[in-house]
Amino acid sequence: METTRWSYVSGTSDVPLLGVTIGDCFDAIAARFPDNEALVVRQQGLRYTYADLKTEVDRCARGLMALGIAKGERVGIWAPNRAEWLITQLATSKIGAILVNINPAYRLHELEYALHQSGCSALVFAPQFRGADYSAMLYELLPEMRQARPGHLAAGRLPDLRTVIRLGDEPAAGMFTWSDVLAAAERVSPADLAARQAEQQFDDPINIQYTSGTTGYPKGATLSHHNILNNGYFVARLMRFTDKDRLVIPVPLYHCFGMVMGNLGCITHGATIIYPSEGFEPLAVLQAVQEERATALFGVPTMFIAELDHPEFGRFDLSSLRTGVMAGAPCPVEVMRKVHSLMNMREVEICYGMTETSPVSTQTRIGAPLEKQVGTVGQVHPHVEIKIIDPVSGKVLPRGQTGELCTRGYSVMLGYWNNEEATRKAIDAAGWMHTGDLAVMDEEGYINIVGRIKDMIIRGGENVYPREIEEFLYTHPKISDVQVIGVPDERYGEEIMAWIKLKPGETADEEEIRQFCRGQIAHFKIPRYIKFVDSFPMTVTGKVQKFRMREQSIEELNLRAAASMRTA
Ligand code: AMP
What we know:
Blueprint: E1 8-10, H1 22-32, E2 37-41, E3 46-49, H2 50-66, E4 74-78, H3 83-95, E5 98-102, H4 108-118, E6 122-125, E7 128-129, E8 132-133, H5 134-141, E9 163-166, E10 176-177, H6 178-184, H7 190-199, E11 205-211, E12 219-224, H8 225-238, E13 246-248, H9 256-267, E14 272-275, H10 282-292, E15 296-299, H11 301-308, E16 323-326, H12 333-342, E17 347-353, E18 360-363, H13 370-375, E19 379-380, E20 384-389, E21 403-409, E22 415-416, H14 420-426, E23 433-441, E24 447-452, E25 457-459, E26 462-464, H15 466-474, E27 479-489, E28 493-502, H16 510-517, E29 529-532, H17 546-557, H18 560-563
Parallel strand pairs: 2-14, 4-5, 4-6, 5-11, 6-9, 9-10, 13-14, 13-15, 15-16, 16-17, 28-29
Antiparallel strand pairs: 1-20, 2-3, 7-8, 11-12, 12-22, 17-18, 18-19, 20-21, 21-23, 23-24, 25-26, 27-28
The protein binds adenosine monophosphate (AMP).
Adenosine monophosphate (AMP) binds at residues 211, 327-331, 350, 352, 354-355, 359, 377, 435, 437, 449, 452, 458, 463.
């Protein structure tokens, strides 16, 4: 039957989905490749074989059980990339606790929201990162912690939160240290852990990641073992990963790019995970690739741009590289070409997807024509379906026409945590996740992402929701109205701009507005450009026309070159 006329594809595969939990999969790989290097954390000077990592993971899992963490409870993690992140990820999946990823750039306003909305009963956090003192922030949010017995917190603002665990071994009021957790493992036997692990089902929720989906305030995309284990497995499989591959992961672990495509991609193949630094540093990435003889490298486009532009780029030997992934934001074709030729990543691939779909839905393939490898986001993933629809009528469009990309299959999240209404809006009755991305599919099923209908900005791979910044700025006493847009930027893809209307008689300057944001919202959400206005461009029905604001700003800020960059 003729099916190619329509923008619909179904990803066939002769490799079945994995029907196991993350914990069982990890144990099987650790038994198969005990002496393979599993994890290298350069900034901590740590190296673990698969056998070592399993010992640490099991100890952490037993320690968390000893602290009374039950199946289904939420455990937040607020830390940059380090060994304990992966250990906590695997330990929580063994005991069936749901890991809640919290962006280390989050500040009080955002942290409180995530912990409260997910109802976390425990939080694991790093003492500091990039000059920010996380303990001080937590004492500010939870003053009761100064008097609390560790594990018995009862705080007014976060009533569900009982247990706070700080990485390291330095004691602090009201908290356990990481060492305390490992020591508590003595109270739970390996047999108890095995029994708990055996209770888990692969369709159980295991991870919550905050994202705003297509609109509005952050929502907790809730993902199962099955969702993310399989997605990591197939991403790495399409990169032809084996137990000999060594992957440098500079992308943050709080996002699925790091913890699913990176961590689970490696763990399903017995490959080596390498963290070059706590947060992204281009020099540390180049050093890690050379010194660790890495075969693969991940990054959002901004990271590859920073590595290629680094003044010392030319002195590094990157000849061990073979493959890797660029994803998370529109990928400039020219940057892809340079990654191919100058970084020796002949088999680099582009992935496209979103958190709600575990995340990857399309991937370019090794061996495809070069133009398709650098100029499209590839073809549908194994076991996944994609259709492109007219956003108004909902009907599938013919090939070659632009519409909203929808995804269906094992990879679609269970739903948004405690938010049925938003879940129903995102996933329709037939099981399709509506992505809010505009795409076009060619005759061979290659896909290009050509725009977004959702109200979202991507700055250097970080998603930013205008509404969230607008709501925050409304709390400024001098602001009467505010509209936030994304404007094109050659380095970050997009930058944040706020158009602000002040209350009658008020005056303010840009610095004053930025100062108001510091410490309350993450640095990447603080507007780079601020324009004070008397009114916004409106439709006759009173709706703000953000596209007009964008056009006008591109002219005024002289951003035409960045606006015309070609992407996959
Ligand atoms: P997140 O949920 O943080 O993974 O963000 C998902 C969104 O990032 C998608 O809905 C797209 O708008 C965008 N995105 C991810 N990968 C790509 C890509 N390869 N090209 C263009 N946009 C992308």
